[in-house]
Amino acid sequence: SGTATAPPATLQLSPASLSFAPQSEGLTSAPQSVTITNPGSTAADISGIKLSSANAGVFVLGNSCAASLGAAATCQLNVSFSPVVNTAPGSRSATLSVPGANPSSVAVSGTATQAAISVPTSFDFGSQLAGTAASSLTPQPVTVSNTSTGPLAGALAITAASVSGANAADFVLGTDACISANTPPNGTCTIQVTFAPVQAASCGSGSARSATLTLQDNAPGGPHTIPLSGTAADFCFTSSTGQPVTAPVHPGQTATYTVQLDSSAGFAGSIALACTDPVPLSTCTITTNPVTTPPSVQVSPSAAGQFTVSVTTTAAGAAPFVSRPPRGPARPLPQPVWTTLLEMLALLTVWIATRRAARTAPPAARWARVASASALVLTLMIGMVACGGGASDPPAVQPGTPGTPVGTYTVTVKGTAANGVSRTVSPGLTVQ
Description:
This protein starts with 11 loop residues before the first strand and ends with a strand. The chain has about 425 residues and is mainly β. Helix 2 (about 335-360) packs antiparallel against helix 3 (about 365-390). The chain has three domains: about 10-115, Sandwich (Immunoglobulin-like); about 115-235, Immunoglobulin-like; about 240-315 and about 405-430, Immunoglobulin-like (Sandwich), CATH 2.60.40.2310. It is about 10% helix and about 40% strand. The protein is elongated.
């Protein structure tokens, strides 16, 4: 006697095979599923599941099943197709084995395709003014082609693009259509690159700029590189920084600087000029030939731009400044003026009376009257002069203007190109 044990049920697999669409090397397909069903009344051991293939790593198994599958339960296996790069395109196959199933395996197959890439052997951006902001420039497209053809031609996938090298900061990556989508056979995509050279520490030095654009892709022979190059143009002041062009000046004199702007690496254009003068009580003037307002010079490889900077200082004021008193409302005449007018009226009366009496008086009496009248006139004139003295106030006098203080100063001359890029030079000035 004893207890009968039911034999383990035969596991079922569905579907019986997996067939993947052609897949480009280096890319992974969407997964396909295989379902394991246990139709029996007891648990089944499924720990021996494996995926075997002559092409290692081509098919990828995703197994979320436990080692034991319960009665009347199901479990799902996922398989993906991921052809390896740098292998010959063509058919790929594998076998998914599930011990205890009938049939015990699932056939897996797919076709590997292959992309081919074509990139420029080099890319030259030409000349650009150093210091120009990348945001103000138009990027240039670097074209990448998928040149694969035929039934085994695959999609080109670029997963990353980067710039490296001595002048990597001069080349700015923009919109990358190659990364956003795979490029089909015989198709092209573009990577936008902007050449915005930074200003060198020494004006005009290191004008030749270079870097390398590297593409991480799924084409044979990757990663692929593109040499980048460009020329950093510039305009440079030739007067030595901090060196006065003229000897020290005294307050009231003018310091003169002859300055020149030279072209570097082919720069050509108009440069606007400005002067910042920190010297107290002075003016800074820029003179160009021909004269331009506001001042500017033309700079080209064949002709430098020359101009003169004049800093005029101020001497201490020697002559007082006389100011005119402000006009106000009419004021009454002072008392001495009225007195003078009365005296003149009395004089006129005496003169008329004397003249009438003289017509009838003897000669001796007439001369006596003339002498008396003359004495009276003289007395009145002396009184008028005495009363008129000191009647007006002296004019107001403003102290003299102080001159430019002695000392050592730095004058800044600035040149600005049409796109806003600027350079400066700072000659020294000594006032003594």
